[in-house]
Design goal:
The structure is a single chain. The chain is mostly helical and about 150 residues long. Helices cover about 50% and strands about 10% of the residues. A three-stranded antiparallel beta sheet has the order 1-3-2. Helix 2 crosses helix 3 and helix 3 crosses helix 4.
Length: about 150
């Protein structure tokens, strides 16, 4: 029998007795175990399998960054974030991950970036380039349109 989504006592996303770490991170609601989410889990496994092949074939991608962005990324790498963090929400966890990706881009810029006029040319690992692209797409929201045909 499927839970009634309008009843908070049977809805697995609001059940206070449900495991809050079902996604592997504290504060996240468990993923309802429905046919649709079972399909999504399988899709996620397939995406990871594709990622394995991308990882084996793609190493770095050359990008040109405006100087101001390159300097900001280096500053993120140079920043000293001291102290322990309190328990994070999923959103805070995601934000910290994006900040970490920015800092790693800053490290690469500081070690291998080369200035060409007002821009920095740098070979980014494909995972960092992908993280930056994903952050851009997510920030653009539903109105995102690729600049490429």
């Amino acid at each position: 029998m499927q839970p009634d989504a309008t009843d908070p006592t049977t809805d697995p996303t609001t059940d206070p007795t449900a495991d809050p770490t079902a996604c592997g991170h504290p504060g996240c609601a468990p993923v309802p175990d429905t046919e649709r989410y079972a399909l999504y889990r399988e899709d996620a496994k397939l995406l990871a399998a594709i990622g394995e092949h991308v990882d084996a074939q793609a190493d770095r991608v050359t990008v040109r960054l405006p100087g101001a962005l390159a300097r900001a990324a280096v500053a993120a790498w140079d920043r000293d974030d001291e102290g322990d963090l309190d328990e994070e929400t999923h959103e805070q966890y995601e934000l910290r991950g994006q900040a970490g990706d920015l800092a790693l881009i800053g490290l690469v810029v500081s070690e291998r970036g080369r200035w060409e006029g007002e821009e920095v040319v740098v070979d980014l690992f494909v995972n960092l380039a992908g993280a930056a692209l994903l952050a851009h797409i997510e920030a653009a929201g539903a109105g995102y349109r690729s600049p490429k045909p």
